[in-house]
Write a structure and sequence with these properties.
With 571 residues, this protein is of the alpha/beta class. 39% of the residues lie in helices and 20% in strands. It has helices at 10-18, 23-31, 56-68, 81-96, 118-126, 142-150, 190-207, 223-232, 239-253, 259-268, 277-294, 298-305, 309-342, 367-378, 409-419, 443-457, 480-488, and strands spanning 2-5, 73-76, 102-105, 131-135, 154-158, 172-174, 355-358, 382-387, 396-402, 424-429, 433-439, 466-469, 500-512, 518-525, 528-534, 544-556, 559-570. Helix 11 (277-294) crosses helix 13, helix 13 crosses helix 14 (367-378) and helix 15 (409-419) packs across helix 16. The radius of gyration is 24 Å and the shape is globular.
Length: 571
């Protein structure tokens, strides 16, 4: 492991500080590419305008016409948190803007698979829908869209995933990553794309005289869901996404949120008045995702749609229970998969350039989480496969992959598909996360092919795990108030949470936790004693060590003390 410090452009940091930004925040923002205080402006009028999205005017016209004709709309969602929040935003938003008939359908991960398939299109038609709207999927659903069109449905695709070689023949399509789209932010989550469609639809309805600026419905309450889905989907938090997330956080902290979001905070034991992006990514998001992994994502969507506090509490409780079950399944799978991965190489050797593991007993609902855990530990692109549980698909393996910086996972799958036709039955995804299906007998071929691509694309530098930090932490910033200030900001993918690094003296250390799998440390930081904890780490540290750490506050009997959350050590 290598710990490095980000470059901090002194002129940018100075300019931000002179503009009134907190000195520590000025340094952190400058290191993340912020050059002007205006980039930190979180006001809604600073959002990129919807008109920049290719196809959004056609989408707004299609929806406005459908509403004028009282047509029946059906939203086809994805079964993750982004898909669930996008579905809830679509249903709530369309009803808010006057649509009388809005239904939704979410595929089952096991029996239906991902996206708008021909059978899903037929189910939408059987429900009596006239218009099919995809959220967080559809850009790769060439056959599904064709089937929907053949059945006489109007089709609007809203998505953010990378397109394949052929685009679906939808009536309208909004995706910042489709060819020819000049929208400046390519990192909108699926829920963000749907929110933009609603903004343009509201403008179209104003143009038609349905309402004016004073009487138009307010879409801002939907931003709590936009923020949740954006962070949970781990998309890059560029300036536009940070504004969306900041607006959602602001409303949650003020208590203005759907009943289901409030209930999820309670179920997770988190405090909404001091909500952070951490709560979205590690508390609420996993509970919603658990429904799609082990049960039916309808539970998650209904929790986000209900305005009944009692029902929301009941649904959030069910989601919490499912998430506990998910953690138990994941724990056993993670141990088995990690053992399989570590058996691929000797202790004296480095891991192979890419890792693929499969076991017939793995649960396909949690393969992505397990792949992420292996990737984090071994710092290699990793795929974990499970046997498909879908009827008639028993010969297929469903895989989910997670990658490391410098290895574009979807592009790697594309190259595997070109070199070995027929091995990948289908695939899709992003740079850092992707999914695929292979025939059971082709697993060995896939494993070797992916490793070959990784061998070609990765070198010793990219295969070395690096923790990029913000350098030393001045003693005056080691306070609970400063930690609170940092926690109020929007951090996440592409806008990393503050992580500091410096050499410290280890005074004492011991293993804690139920399984004795966390290292509790007392250390000396610039002459001051500080408590630290390294979760999931059991190896003892030397007396002096270079640590990378984040800041947190430990509350005990009314006293708030700073503690370090260790991210890594260079020994």
């Amino acid at each position: 492991m290598k710990i490095t410090a980000r470059d901090i452009p002194p002129r940018a940091a100075w300019a931000l500080e002179q503009a009134g930004v907190h000195p520590l925040l000025a340094r952190l923002y400058a290191a993340r590419g912020v050059r002007d205080k205006e980039e930190l402006n979180e006001r809604l009028d600073r959002l990129l305008p919807p008109a920049g999205l290719k196809g959004i005017q056609q989408a707004a016209t299609l929806l406005a016409d459908a509403m004028a004709q009282d047509l029946r709309l059906c939203v086809v969602a994805d079964y993750d948190c982004d898909g669930a929040t996008a579905c809830a935003v679509a249903v709530r938003g369309l009803r808010l803007l006057g649509a009388k008939h809005v239904d939704y359908l979410v595929p089952d991960r096991v029996t239906d698979g991902y996206g708008l398939t021909p059978p899903i299109a037929r189910r939408v038609k059987e429900r009596g829908a006239d218009v099919l709207i995809t959220v967080d999927n559809g850009i790769a659903s060439v056959e599904g869209v064709a089937e929907a069109k053949a059945l006489g449905l109007l089709v609007l695709v809203t998505d953010h995933h990378l397109p394949g070689p052929e685009l679906p023949a939808a009536d309208a399509m909004v995706n910042p990553n489709q060819p020819g789209c000049t929208f400046e932010s390519k990192f909108l989550a699926g829920v963000g794309v749907m929110f933009y469609v609603l903004m343009e639809l509201r403008s179209e309805l104003r143009r038609r005289g349905v309402f004016d600026m004073d009487s138009q419905p307010r879409l801002e309450p939907l931003l709590t869901l936009v923020a949740l889905g954006t962070v949970a989907d781990v998309v890059r938090l560029d300036a536009n996404n940070r504004r969306l997330v900041a607006q959602g956080l602001r409303r949650i902290r003020a208590g203005a949120m759907p009943a289901g979001v409030a209930a999820l905070f309670t179920a997770a034991g988190r405090k909404a008045p001091v909500a952070t992006t951490f709560d979205f990514g590690f508390a609420l998001g996993p509970r919603i995702n658990a429904a799609g992994r082990l049960a039916d994502m309808t539970l998650g969507i209904e929790c986000l749609l209900t305005d009944d506090a009692g029902r929301a509490s009941d649904l959030a409780g069910q989601l919490d229970t499912i998430n506990r079950e998910r953690r138990e399944i994941e724990g056993g799978m993670r141990e088995q998969a990690m053992l399989m991965a570590e058996n691929l190489f000797d202790e004296s050797e480095d891991p192979p350039p890419a890792i693929s593991v499969f076991d017939p007993d793995f649960h396909e609902g949690v393969v992505g989480i397990v792949a992420s855990r292996i990737k984090d530990k071994l710092h290699r692109p990793t795929f974990v496969f499970a046997a498909s549980s879908a009827p008639g698909k028993e010969h297929e393996l469903k895989g989910s992959g997670r990658s490391i910086p410098g290895f574009h996972l979807r592009d790697a799958l594309d190259l595997v598909a070109k070199r070995h036709p027929g091995v990948l039955l289908k695939f899709g995804g992003h740079a850092m996360a992707a999914g695929c299906t292979v025939a059971a007998e082709a697993f060995d071929t896939f494993e070797q092919a992916l490793a070959q691509v990784a061998q070609e694309w990765l070198d010793a530098s990219t295969l070395t795990r690096r923790i990029e930090t913000d350098g030393p932490l001045a003693p005056e910033y080691c306070s609970a108030d400063v930690v609170d200030t940092l926690h109020r900001e929007v951090w996440g993918q592409g806008f990393a949470p503050p992580t500091f690094s410096e050499e410290v003296v280890v005074l004492s250390q011991r293993l804690v936790g139920e399984g004795k799998n966390h290292l509790s440390i007392k250390l000396m930081h610039q002459g001051n004693p500080v408590d630290a904890i390294w979760f999931g780490h059991t190896d003892q540290l030397p007396a002096r060590v270079l640590l990378a750490f984040r800041l947190d506050v430990n509350e005990w009997r009314g006293e708030r003390k700073v503690q370090f959350l260790v991210e890594g050590a260079e020994i």
